[in-house]
Amino acid sequence: MTVERFVCTLFVVLLAALPGAPAQQQLPTFSLPPHGIRINVVVNAKSGQPVTNLTQQDFTLLDNKTPRPITSFKIVSPAADQPTRVILLLDAVNMPYQALAYAREGVKKYLKSHEGELPYPTTLAILTDKGAQIVNDFSTDGNALSDLLEHQQIGLREINRDSEWSGVERLQICLTAFHQLASFASTLSGRKAVIWISPGWPLVSGPRINLGTRQEQEIFDDVVSLSNQLRRDDVTLYNTNPWGVGESLDRADYYENFLKAPVKPSDVQLGDLSVKVLAVHTGGLAIESNSDVSGMIDKCLVDLRSWYEITFDPLPADKPNEYHHIEVQLDQRALTARTTDGYYANPQVLEPQR
User: Origin, by domain of life (predicted)?
Assistant: First the structure.
């Protein structure tokens, strides 16, 4: 089987997994909301602790390097303002059995911390070669969730890792599951944090992967759709790698080659849809070289203590699917701001029906 044929098969499956996708690929136009672009901004001190006492005047927002007026500004406290939910996903597709067992114990340690009282309603999900399964309703009872995870049967994957194509096969499972998870999150109110516990998805990118025009367009459409959907639905993705210091630095950092968002179909590679890239682009984190699974989850959830909700009027788009990079600058140079990487203006792609 050729690489081109296998990649084509991957995206036929992905498109079939999108709910409500029409049979013919006519691309409708989706307008940006009339009230502008809304983003969540996390500000941290050098210590990593959140800074929550800034004012609108402390922020400068750039849309494609052009300053834009902030039309609304709010400091959000989830306990007082809106529900915030957490989805913890254990990836049994991309971890060998021993690493999976270690990650599972780390999740249980987190659930039992703070006397088992979780700060946010949390649900558990497990990814196997059968797909992603959410195993419980949202709960703040960490002890009960830990007990549930303890007795959860996680079947070993049936994918042949010795196969030359196992990377594409695993990527297919991961992307299909993530689309389903994103659709589920879109039905929930408030902000959602998805913590994907995994060394990452196969990048399936490089000189041996030659994409045709159709595959490039399908990947680009998926990038545009996911980027706008996750921002619109207040979903922030995090990736925590439980392999810790045993992970190859070259492998761990390779995703950084795909952090520049594609602006046209010919720019894309399958690595643009990797979990680490999606995490960074949503304003989340891709945490490497750390074997403390419980501590990594805590580090992700620091973002949810409080954040800034900012709305601005976007620049007009000159063409369909025009990418706009967002930068947030602060008057206090010792502070760092993290938010969504950008948005696609005048999107014309097949989006999942809500």
Answer: Bacteria
Q: At what angle do helices 97-112 and 142-150 cross, to 10 degrees?
A: 160
The number of distinct structural domains making up the chain is 1
pTM of the model: 0.89
CA-nearest of 18, 32, 19 to 315 is 32
User: How open is the CA angle 326-193-30, to the nearest 5 degrees?
Assistant: 50
φ and ψ of 282, to 5 deg: -85, 0
- Encoded tokens for 10: 């991957």
Note the pLDDT tens digit of each residue in 191-224.
999 999 999 999 888 767 888 999 999 999 999 9
* 322-330 vs 37-44, strand pairing mode: unpaired
Per-residue tokens: 97: 């059995």
The residue type at 157: R
Contact 47, 280 (CB under 8 A): no
Residue range 145-175, pLDDT digits in tens? 999 999 998 866 555 544 545 788 899 999 9
Among candidate residues 297, 293, 292, the one with its CA nearest the CA of residue 120 = 297
Rg, the chain, Cα only: 20
339 found inside a domain: no
Residue 107 lies in a domain: yes
What the block records as the tokens of 115 is: 């006397």
What three-state secondary structure class fits 114? helix
- Using the predicted structure, report yes or no on whether residue 290 has a pLDDT greater than 90: no
Segments forming the whole domain that contains residue 210: 3-20+75-157+165-310
Q: Does any domain span residue 250?
A: yes
Residue 147 token pair: 């007990």
- Which residues have a Cβ under 8 Å from the Cβ of 103 and sit 6 or more positions away? 90, 95, 197, 242, 293
Q: Cα–Cα distance between 349 and 354 in angstroms, integer? A: 15
Read off the CATH number of the domain in which 202 is found. Answer: 3.40.50.410
